[in-house]
Amino acid sequence: MNFKVAIITGGSSGIGKNLAKELLKDNYKTIIIGKTKSNVQETLKELKQISENCSGFVCDINDEKRVKYLVTEILKENHKVDLLVNNAGFSYYKEFDELSEEEIKEIVSTNLLGTMYFCKFIIPYMEKQGYGHIVNVASVAGRIGLPKLSVYCASKFGIVGFTESLYYEMKKKNIYVTLVCPGAVDTNFYRDESFKKFPHAQRHKKVMSPEYVAKEIKKAIDNKRFELILPKLFRFKIMFKDVLKRFAMWYVSRLPR
Length: 257
Ligand SMILES: NC(=O)c1ccc[n+]([C@@H]2O[C@H](COP(=O)([O-])OP(=O)(O)OC[C@H]3O[C@@H](n4cnc5c(N)ncnc54)[C@H](OP(=O)(O)O)[C@@H]3O)[C@@H](O)[C@H]2O)c1
Description:
Layout: E1 4-9, H1 14-25, E2 28-34, H2 37-48, E3 54-58, H3 64-78, E4 83-86, H4 101-129, E5 132-137, H5 150-171, E6 175-182, H6 199-202, H7 210-222, E7 227-230, H8 232-253
Parallel strand pairs: 1-2, 1-4, 2-3, 4-5, 5-6, 6-7
NADP nicotinamide-adenine-dinucleotide phosphate is lined by residues 9-10, 12-16, 34-36, 39-40, 59-62, 87-90, 110, 137, 139, 182, 184-185, 187-189, 210.
């Protein structure tokens, strides 16, 4: 097989769709997974204009059993997986006390558990083949708490911690791990009614394009980079926050108990 195989969750829209295009241009066989049948079908049509070497599946990644079944079927057909991109995710823009219990579960389960399920079922296969690369798409909201995004932030902070831990565990297995933390990107992410009042929706010019973000992710994959924070200016803000946090931790650890 003279091509690499990539699986992208949330490949039917936005960042995932554009990353699929970049991978197809670089001769990857690209398998996209999305939740909405019409989005998966439409995106596949677009992708096939670049290369026929792609396929798509509809799967709600909240459903652990369905994810396990789908992964088994994909691996049976392809016999290898070079790259897994855990990108599917969503949120509502509401204060914590406005979210229903169902909405809380839906956010955590899609963003965090969905990522873990795909890792859980694909890592043993990568281990067996002796190599692999996992990309987890978190967010700047996984590094900084933001109002009206509390549960989304919790899920993305969870992905950041999970991915950092995974990095050490996978290193010895020849599996690379990449963490992606973008700021606002112009995608369907903001389609829910609750985002009408989101500040970035009113300042569209400051938002990154999904094409740009996808190209940067592709570069990070090629360079086997651990962490990608976008836009670049945010790197300094996050670094600054981490320095202060470390100072606070050092101070707290010295307090008498
Ligand atoms: N846009 C931003 O400003 C931004 C910033 C930082 C991080 N991110 C993160 O980037 C990732 C991609 O988001 P995007 O901006 O490209 O948004 P998007 O255009 O709305 O794409 C989200 C993708 O996730 C899929 N998805 C959502 N829930 C799913 C579920 N339960 N099961 C399977 N697939 C599901 C969607 O499938 P269907 O379309 O088929 O329903 C879609 O393909 C997300 O993890 C998001 O949190 C986005």
